[in-house]
Structure formats: structure tokens, C-alpha cells
């Protein structure tokens, strides 16, 4: 009663005016609400006009004024930048969680899985999201993945709903508590207010759902022996869904962190998810071109056949719903690249017959080499035919490699021996195999920087090809075809007639 009366008296302080005047955050306002009105007035009156952070000042003053009051759990409210006021009840924390869920517009799946983690950690997660909102594209996915990580955390499992590190006692309801889970977290659609019920207190979310009246709050229920507490109306996510969500989140973070291009993404989609993550996790700040590094590593794993043929579906092992959304996004990306590249119907039609990951990889390569490719449609068509041939052989080399395959293996072995960086390896992919082999075979151990030598030599090859009026070497052409193309360009530059050229 004293606490409620104090909160009513605080209304006369007009905290909204104080909030606007000093630009106080919600943590500071909540802290002021936890002390006596006279104490709150004293704190507000002591704010100096030159104070840089009034919110932090207010929160610190409240803590000094009430040192005997400790938070409910060591982690409670950490994500809110200071937390709820000391001594906050389970009900107050539930209301805070409900308010944040509404503010952030979380979907039902995110709200449901949020219900399965300890309440203090749930508020931490929501608070962290609110602070980083401008950097998070999908708040619901952020919360879902954070909760999955928390559920899979051995320390969290051992601590149960009592909070991490053994702090706080959430296993027991407060005396007389009859409120259930907040709206939107008990199987009710988010944004739909629960029915109004006479005689029941009306909080910010309205009256509690009828089915929950008189029950222990689901936040405070003890976990069953078989698993974590489930939100009413929300099915438990299957372990495969949890694993897929965690894997998807990790892949998305890595792709965004390293700003990988379409070619790298397309190459990753052709290998198993665990191998894709292994490649992504091997990236570090020393890699000059992450996209080229990832593309080369993924192709090597796909083409050696050690891991079997390319992965069907190309969704990195995501759950069905996420995989469908992901592949729709890839389809849109492919169509946008086709339009941007102004491909003819023949090339575009062949691309649409390929798996999305193959089309994406080819289009990404085209974007990388745009300045060097004279006929994008022909380039794409030839690359698509080669990709189809690769699929026809199960995505792996034949038992008896042809001369070109042996030469490719020779080039890879030389590149590995010389420890070329990803940029140099990618540069070798832009010239015919014979040219790449020639570059590597003329190198010796005393060369200062083999990678730099390769990059400069490949650049000179392209410049020479352009100087003779011909196109840059086509990496998909055989050695004989590349030599023929170069000879034709030189002949035209020298004015040789067609009969002599044919001879």
C-alpha cells in the first residue's frame, strides 16, 4: 500500500515534465518511481544545468539513496542500461517485458520463445535490442535467436528460472498474485487487447486473459523435468528448428559482417551448412578480399567431391519456413541482377533453369568482371552450360580427369605451395588455365611477394589483351580457345585479311 501511495503522490511531481525537461530515459524515470516523492524532488532539484547525462545521474542518486535495495537478480534489467528500480517485483518486470514487446513489434514466435528464458534475461535481451534497434533489420529474428542461444546455454539450463548465477527467486509467485502472462505472450495475437473483465485490475495491457486468472504467472512457474517452461498456446520449437535458427543467425551475421557478394553467397549455398560456417569462421582481418576467399574455399570443397554433390535446396540447412523465405529472396536477387546486366533471352532463360545458387554465383562473377567482359550474355550462357555439365556429373570430377582438369589441379597445387592470398587466387581464375600455370611455373622460392607478383602479371595480361583490340581472356575458355581469341585480336590489329586469318 505504501508503495502504491508513493507512486500516486509522485504524480504531483509531474515526472513527464521532468522527463521532457532533462531528457530522462525510462530507466531514470523508473528509478525515481521507486523512491519517496520527497527524495525524488530532492534528486531532480540537484540536477545542474551543465550536467551531461542527467539520466545516469538520477539513476546513480537513487542507488546511493537506497543502497539496501538490491535488484531481484544479478542480471535483471542489465539490457535496459541500468535496469528496473531495485526491488522490482515479478509483476513489474512482466509489465516491463510486455511494454518492450509492444514497442518493438515482435511477432508471436519471438514472444513465445522469449517466454522460455528466465525473466531477467528476457528483459536483458529486449533492452539490448532496444539500444541496438537501428542496427537490427529484423527485431523478431534477433530476439528469437538470442533466446535460442540462452536456452542452449548450459549455465542457463543449470540455473533454471531462478536466474543466472543462482541469483533471484523466480520459482515462487508473489503472495496474492493472480496475473498471467502479458498479452501477446500467452497465445494471444500481438496487438490484440485481451477482453475487458469487470472487477479485475486494468493495467497497461488491459485485463488478463480469462484462462490465466488465478494461475501462477508462466514467468514464475518452475520448469518441468523434461524441458523449459512453454508459453500457453505456443508450441515448443523442435530441436531441429532451434539448431536451424542458430545456424541461420550465425551465417547471416558472418555474411553481413564480411559484406560478401553474390558470388560468395552462391558458392556457399552449394556446400553443407556446417562446412559453410567453417569457411566463414576461418575469415579474419588479414583477408584482403573476403568474398574471393570464401568463393575459392567453397568451390574447392564442392569440386573435390569429399562432401558429396551440391546441397539440394541451397538453404544452408534452414527450417522449412525460413528456407522458403530465403529462397524467395534469392530469386528476387537473381532477377534483379539479370535486369541490371541486360542479358538476352537466351542467357536469361538458361539462368532460370539453373539452381538459384548456381545462377547467383554466375551473376556475381559477371559483376566482378564487368569491365573485362565484352559480351555479358555470351559469358553467362557459357558459364551456365558448364554449370549444367557439373551437375550432370553429380557436382564432382570424373574418376579419370581430362587434361584440363589435371591442369586445374596442377595450378591449385602450385598456388597452395606458394601460399597465395585470396586476391591472387581469384586473379588466376580470370585467365585461361595455361596462362595461370605459366605464371606459377616461372615463379621461384626467392620471390619476395608471390601474391603481388601474380596480381600484377594477371593485370598485364588483361592490359595486353585490351591493347590488341580483343576482349579480356575468357576464364571459361580452354587454352586453345584462348590462344585463338588472342591471335584473332592481334591479326585484326595488324590488318590481316580474312583469307590469311582463316589459313
Structure summarized in a few sentences:
Helix content is 56%, strand content 0%. With 503 residues, it is mainly alpha-helical.
Give an account of the 3D structure.
Residues 467-503 are annotated as: Disordered. With 503 residues, the chain is mainly α. It folds into three domains: 2-171 and 182-191, no CATH class; 243-392, no CATH class; 403-502, no CATH class. The protein has 24 helices and no strands. The radius of gyration is 31 Å and the shape is elongated. The model is unreliable at 1-12, 68-83, 159-239, 306-315, 317-322, 396-401 and 473-480 (pLDDT under 50).
Low-confidence stretches: 1-12, 68-83, 159-239, 306-315, 317-322, 396-401, 473-480
Number of domains: 3
Roughly how many Å apart are the termini?
105 Å
Global morphology: elongated
Structural class, judged by helices and strands?
mainly alpha
H/E series: HHHHHHHHHHHHHHHHHHHHHHHH
Estimate the helix proportion, in percent: 55-70%
Mean pLDDT: 65
What can be said about the biggest beta sheet? none
Number of strands: 0
Region (Disordered): 467-503
Amino acid at each position: 500500500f505504501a508503495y502504491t501511495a508513493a507512486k500516486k503522490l509522485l504524480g504531483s511531481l509531474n515526472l513527464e515534465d521532468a522527463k521532457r525537461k532533462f531528457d530522462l530515459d525510462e530507466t531514470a524515470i523508473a528509478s525515481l518511481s521507486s523512491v519517496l516523492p520527497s527524495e525524488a524532488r530532492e534528486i531532480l532539484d540537484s540536477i545542474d544545468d551543465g550536467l551531461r547525462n542527467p539520466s545516469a545521474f538520477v539513476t546513480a542518486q537513487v542507488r546511493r539513496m537506497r543502497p539496501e535495495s538490491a535488484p531481484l537478480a544479478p542480471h535483471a534489467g542489465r539490457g535496459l542500461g541500468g535496469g528496473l528500480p531495485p526491488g522490482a517485483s515479478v509483476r513489474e518486470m512482466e509489465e516491463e517485458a510486455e511494454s518492450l514487446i509492444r514497442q518493438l513489434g515482435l511477432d508471436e514466435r519471438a514472444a513465445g520463445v522469449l517466454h522460455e528464458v528466465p525473466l531477467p534475461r528476457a528483459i536483458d535481451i529486449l533492452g539490448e535490442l532496444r539500444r541496438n534497434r537501428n542496427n537490427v533489420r529484423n527485431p523478431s529474428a534477433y530476439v528469437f535467436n538470442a533466446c535460442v542461444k540462452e536456452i542452449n546455454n548450459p549455465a542457463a539450463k543449470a540455473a533454471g528460472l531462478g536466474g543466472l548465477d543462482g541469483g533471484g527467486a523466480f520459482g515462487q509467485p508473489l503472495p496474492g498474485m493472480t496475473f498471467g502472462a502479458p498479452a501477446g505472450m500467452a497465445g494471444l495475437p500481438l496487438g490484440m487487447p485481451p477482453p475487458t473483465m469487470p472487477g479485475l485490475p486494468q493495467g497497461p495491457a488491459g485485463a488478463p486473459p480469462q484462462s490465466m486468472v488465478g494461475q501462477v504467472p508462466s514467468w514464475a512457474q518452475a520448469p518441468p523435468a523434461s524441458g523449459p517452461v512453454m508459453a500457453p498456446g505456443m508450441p515448443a520449437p523442435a530441436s531441429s528448428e532451434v539448431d536451424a535458427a542458430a545456424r541461420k543467425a550465425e551465417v547471416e551475421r558472418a555474411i553481413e559482417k564480411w559484406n560478401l557478394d553474390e558470388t560468395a553467397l552462391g558458392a556457399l549455398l552449394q556446400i553443407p551448412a556446417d562446412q559453410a560456417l567453417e569457411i566463414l569462421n576461418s575469415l579474419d582481418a588479414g583477408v584482403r578480399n573476403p568474398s574471393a576467399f570464401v568463393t575459392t574455399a567453397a568451390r574447392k570443397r564442392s569440386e573435390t567431391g569429399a562432401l558429396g554433390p551440391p546441397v539440394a535446396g541451397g538453404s544452408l540447412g534452414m527450417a522449412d519456413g525460413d528456407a522458403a523465405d530465403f529462397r524467395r529472396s534469392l530469386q528476387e536477387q537473381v532477377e534483379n541482377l539479370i535486369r541490371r546486366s541486360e542479358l538476352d533471352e537466351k542467357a536469361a532463360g538458361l539462368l532460370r533453369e539453373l539452381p538459384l545458387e548456381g545462377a547467383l554465383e554466375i551473376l556475381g562473377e559477371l559483376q566482378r568482371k564487368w569491365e573485362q567482359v565484352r559480351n555479358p550474355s555470351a559469358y553467362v550462357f557459357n558459364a551456365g552450360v558448364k554449370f549444367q555439365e557439373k551437375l550432370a556429373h553429380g557436382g564432382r570430377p570424373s574418376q579419370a580427369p581430362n587434361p584440363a582438369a589435371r591442369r586445374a589441379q596442377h595450378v591449385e597445387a602450385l598456388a597452395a605451395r606458394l601460399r597465395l592470398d585470396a586476391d591472387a587466387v581469384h586473379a588466376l581464375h580470370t585467365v585461361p588455365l595455361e596462362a595461370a600455370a605459366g605464371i606459377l611455373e616461372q615463379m621461384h622460392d626467392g620471390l619476395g611477394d608471390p601474391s603481388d607478383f601474380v596480381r600484377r602479371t594477371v593485370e598485364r595480361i588483361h592490359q595486353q589483351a585490351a591493347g590488341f583490340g580483343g576482349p579480356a581472356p575468357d576464364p571459361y575458355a580452354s587454352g586453345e580457345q584462348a590462344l585463338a581469341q588472342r591471335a584473332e585480336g592481334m591479326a585484326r590489329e595488324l590488318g590481316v585479311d580474312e583469307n590469311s586469318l582463316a589459313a
